[in-house]
Design brief:
The complex is a heterodimer. By secondary structure, chain A is mostly helical. Chain A has 12 helices and no strands. Chain A has helices at residues 2-26, 42-51, 58-70, 84-119, 124-138, 141-155, 174-212, 215-222, 227-256, 259-265, 270-280, 283-311. In chain A, helix 4 packs antiparallel against helix 5 and helix 7 packs across helix 9 (227-256). The longest helix of chain A has 39 residues, at 174-212. By secondary structure, chain B is of the alpha+beta class. Chain B has 3 domains: 24-37 and 181-264 and 496-523, D-Maltodextrin-Binding Protein, domain 2 (3-Layer(aba) Sandwich); 58-178, Dipeptide-binding Protein, domain 1, CATH 3.90.76.10; 268-494, Roll (Dipeptide-binding Protein, domain 3), CATH 3.10.105. Chain B is 28% helix and 24% strand. Chain B has helices spanning 2-16, 49-58, 106-117, 157-160, 168-171, 228-236, 250-254, 284-293, 296-304, 334-343, 373-388, 400-407, 432-435, 452-463, 467-484, and strands spanning 29-34, 63-65, 71-73, 76-81, 87-92, 130-131, 134-135, 137-142, 145-149, 191-197, 201-206, 219-224, 242-244, 259-265, 268-274, 308-310, 347-349, 354-357, 360-361, 363-369, 392-398, 418-424, 487-500, 503-504, 522-523. In chain B, strands 13, 14, 15, 16, 20, 21, 22 and 23 form an 8-stranded mixed beta sheet that branches. In chain B, strand 18 (354-357) and strand 19 (360-361) form a beta hairpin. The longest helix of chain B is centred in the last third of the chain and has 18 residues, at 467-484. Classes of the chains: A mainly alpha, B alpha+beta. The interface between A and B is large, with 65 and 63 residues.
């Protein structure tokens, strides 16, 4: 059953890449637009386009790409001449590290707080949480990032300003490297948490409030079931349904990385790779990233569907 | 409540603590930053400035530009040019070795230029070595002598030949576009490539058998720090030793005792260019009137906070080719501007308060690219200035690709009225691609400027090899151009660089950079 659904996703992914290819090509410019420089001559740019095969008809260009992609070859980046797969895999660890740890922390913070805040609606705790989550949502990420660098790095010198691993530790033990990376990760992680927690708490709170006003909760209360049991057994499971949907859709952003965070903290992740590929019109790299994230979106949706049926047996029919 | 208290405590803690001035690193390592990761480290393929700053440590050219912006021999010990100006013979220094120990010879030079000329190489510099459709020829005379044969005399060739040389013995069997060498380069320069961690840093170590003085600093570490604000903080925290400083931060940096600031003018000029296909701008009096109406000093003050200098012609006073005696350029003079427009047949429409000629209002649009705040602000100031002489200006800020699509449109007339842009200058004064009439509509003469005298002078300048004679030719050309006012030459921006006081042996501040001579640099630890 799952296998059949997985197979049916292949044409979907191919369709996504085809549409993306057409959109990408219809944007003005090409990989040579970067060289607006009087020392560069136009015939060189023409030759470059020819070398990249950009003089061929669109469909042939796409056909060539998909043929090679199905064989597992995503080609070479225009900018670096590196294999696209290698470029993506080089950047993946840093992105995954940051996104997975921030996701876990966000869930650990938002679930209990959202639950409490929804349960104790309009009490002091709820008001406090609401206040801080609105503040968190209102602060722009780049500003929070820069303020954190200014305060915690420059003023009190608690953390380094940017980077991933101290080059001096390139040959150090894994343990030392891990600590060093964690040390560098503190500020970007904190920046993500401030925005991420704020958003998801509101969501959790709302869905708990929604569930608690349902008839079956009133019925459960009427039957004298303990509040604890109502909250954790009945409400929590149902409230987690919309969260699963959000997480499923968010799977691709896990590897997509955040351009702003990576830019401010010089974090060597995927976000910068994709955005720079767009600006430089690095088509092979761009198609590679699109393929990657479309596969993840599709799988994320599938995973969400499956976990839905696990949480809520009614969905199976 | 607890949260509030912790927050208050945290804020108090943050404000209470002083900036730490302790240096985090005390090793003999030069710590620099790159604002973006280089694409690859192969000097004939790379086009980004991050790559060229790293390549300057690893590679050498036959000639190199020194801190006085002069071309001096580097891998070559000298060169001769024949009477006709078509044969350049370079004698190479002996006992130069590649980082892997192999000797450097004339074959490497031949290989490098032939690879540049190969159409399969993804380089944008091939045409530099093709003169009027004919490629140059490279002959190896002996292991230490190489001859370049040009199809015709071409003096800009000397600057172009300063391209870095690649090792033939490593690359000859490789595909130059995708070879591993591009990420693991081997050169002849003062530093050897050691390590590159994608998105993080590039590390170089000194070349102990460098053919000139041995470098004094053991390691050069380039960290990738994308955000200029973060780079500035890293400079303050002494995590890096050199960083560019935006005008708004110069005051705050000057108060830091461990940072020294240096200033110099960039080899760049900004300009407002008129499309010669626009009916208003066909008349030289109109172009001059607009030039008279723009207060360049005010732009320098308003846009660059005074860190710049007004420009009058398409060259820089830092270059040898800049005329010694001044060329009369239109000064800021509103009255003159108004009378020129009157002579050109424009009359004021009292109702709209805009000038008119033959019933059409004098209204035009300036386009410039998004993301360059200086250009956007300049456009606004020009818009206000021209309002004073009753010309209506609209502004349009466009994404770079969309902008180029209009400017580079190969079929005339290009759909724009005027643009604000900047050109970078090199020590070679030849600006054929910008001003020659053959470079329209395809080419960088996108405004359609045509002056036969300028065309002839450009050709003459390329044929003449004597520097003094060339200087006279280019002075004549600048005089013609200033007289035609195809551009309003706006300003040269000034760059401010901050360096940590422990870094010594810096070159005189100038466009070739403070770290021009790598072997002189040392750290006072």
């Amino acid at each position: 059953m799952i296998l059949r659904r997985l197979l049916s996703l292949i044409p979907l992914v191919i369709g996504i890449t085809f549409v993306s290819f057409l959109i990408m090509k219809s944007a003005p410019g090409d990989p040579t637009v970067m060289f607006q420089d009087p020392t560069v001559q136009l015939q060189d740019l023409e030759q470059l386009k020819k070398n990249y095969g950009l003089d061929k008809p669109l469909l042939i260009q796409y056909g060539y790409w998909i043929k090679e992609a199905l064989k597992g070859n995503l080609g070479f980046s225009y900018q670096t001449g590196k294999p696209v797969t290698l470029m993506i895999f080089e950047r993946l660890p840093a992105t995954l590290l940051l996104s997975v740890s921030s996701l876990i922390l966000i869930l650990c913070i938002t679930f209990p707080l959202g639950l409490l805040s929804g349960y104790k609606k309009d009490k002091t705790l709820d008001k406090l949480v609401t206040f801080f989550s609105f503040v968190g949502m209102a602060l722009p990420t780049f500003w929070v990032g820069l303020i954190l660098i200014l305060m915690l790095s420059l003023k009190v010198n608690l953390f380094p300003t940017s980077g991933y691993l101290d080059p001096a530790l390139a040959n150090a033990s894994i343990l030392k490297q891990t600590f060093n990376i964690a040390y560098h990760m503190a500020l970007p992680l904190l920046t993500i948490l401030i925005g991420g927690v704020a958003g998801l708490i509101r969501f959790n709170r709302f869905s708990i409030i929604n569930i608690l006003s349902q008839d079956y909760i009133h019925a459960a209360r009427a039957r004298g079931i303990s509040e604890k049991r109502i909250l954790f057994k009945h409400a929590l499971k149902n409230a987690s349904l919309p969260i699963v949907t959000i997480l499923g859709a968010g799977l691709s952003s896990l590897i997509g990385g955040s351009f702003i965070i990576e830019y401010i903290f010089s974090w060597p992740g995927m976000g910068q790779l994709g955005v720079n590929a767009v600006f430089a019109r690095d088509y092979p790299l761009l198609m590679g990233s699109i393929l990657f994230s479309s596969i993840l979106i599709v799988i994320g949706n599938l995973a969400a569907d499956i976990s839905y049926s696990l949480i809520d047996p009614r969905v199976k029919q | 409540m607890i949260k509030k208290i912790t927050l208050i405590l945290l804020v108090a803690l943050t404000l209470g603590c002083n900036t730490t001035k302790e240096r985090p690193y005390n090793d003999n390592t030069l710590r620099l930053n790159l604002s973006a990761e280089p694409n690859l480290l192969n000097p004939i393929l790379s086009t980004d400035s991050a790559a060229s700053s790293v390549e300057a440590y690893i590679f050498n050219g036959l000639l190199v530009v020194n801190e006085d912006l002069e071309l001096i021999p580097e891998l070559a010990s000298g060169y001769t040019i024949n009477e006709a100006g078509t044969e350049y013979v370079f004698t190479l220094k002996k006992n130069i070795k590649w980082h892997d120990g192999e000797p450097f010879t004339a074959h490497d030079v031949k290989y490098t230029f032939e690879t540049l000329l190969d159409p399969k190489t993804n380089t944008v510099r091939r045409s530099n070595f093709v003169i009027n459709g004919n490629p140059i020829k490279i002959d190896v005379i002996s292991n230490h002598k190489v001859k370049f044969v040009l199809p015709e005399p071409f003096s800009p060739f000397l600057v172009r030949i300063s391209t870095s040389i690649l090792p033939k013995h490593i690359l000859e069997k490789e595909d130059i576009n995708t070879t591993e060498f591009n990420r693991n380069p081997i050169g002849t320069g003062p530093y050897k490539f050691k390590e590159w961690k994608s998105g993080q840093y590039i590390m170089l170590s000194k070349n102990e058998s460098y053919f000139e003085n041995e470098p004094k600093i053991d390691t050069v570490l380039f960290s990738v720090i994308n955000d200029p604000n973060a780079a500035l903080i890293a400079l303050k925290k002494q995590e890096i030793y050199v960083a560019g400083i935006p005008p708004k931060d110069i005051k705050s940096i000057k108060s830091e005792s461990h940072i020294q600031t240096h200033q110099y003018y960039d080899l760049i000029y900004s300009y407002l260019a008129f499309n010669f296909n626009n009916t208003h701008f066909k008349d030289v009096r109109v172009r001059k009137a607009i030039t008279h109406a723009i207060h360049k000093e005010a732009i320098v003050k308003g846009v660059l906070k005074g860190h710049g200098k007004a420009a009058a012609l398409p060259s820089s006073h830092l270059l040898w080719s800049y005329p010694d005696t001044p060329i009369t350029a239109p000064s800021f003079d509103i009255e003159k501007s108004k009378s020129l427009l009157k002579d050109a047949g424009y009359t004021l429409n009292e109702k709209t308060n805009v000038l008119e000629k033959n019933g059409t209002a004098f209204e035009f649009t300036i386009i410039t690219n998004k993301g360059n705040k200086e250009r956007e602000k300049t456009a606004q100031i020009i818009q206000q200035s021209l309002k004073l002489i009753n010309i209506k200006v609209n502004l349009q800020i466009m994404e770079w690709s969309a902008f180029l699509k209009i400017v580079n449109n190969p079929t005339p007339p290009k759909e724009f009225d005027a643009v604000i842009l900047g050109w970078s200058l090199s020590i070679e004064p030849d600006s054929y691609s910008i001003w020659h009439s053959s470079q329209y509509p395809k080419g960088f003469n996108f405004i359609g400027y045509k002056n036969e005298k300028v065309d002839a002078l450009l050709t003459q300048g390329r044929l003449e090899t004597d520097q003094e004679k060339r200087k006279a030719i280019y002075k004549d050309m600048y005089t013609e151009i200033v007289n035609d006012a195809p551009y309003v030459f706006l300003y040269y921006p000034e760059t401010t660089i901050g360096t940590n006081t422990l870094l010594k042996g810096l070159s005189a501040p100038g466009p070739s950079g403070l770290l021009n001579d790598k072997t002189k640099l040392y750290l006072e630890l």
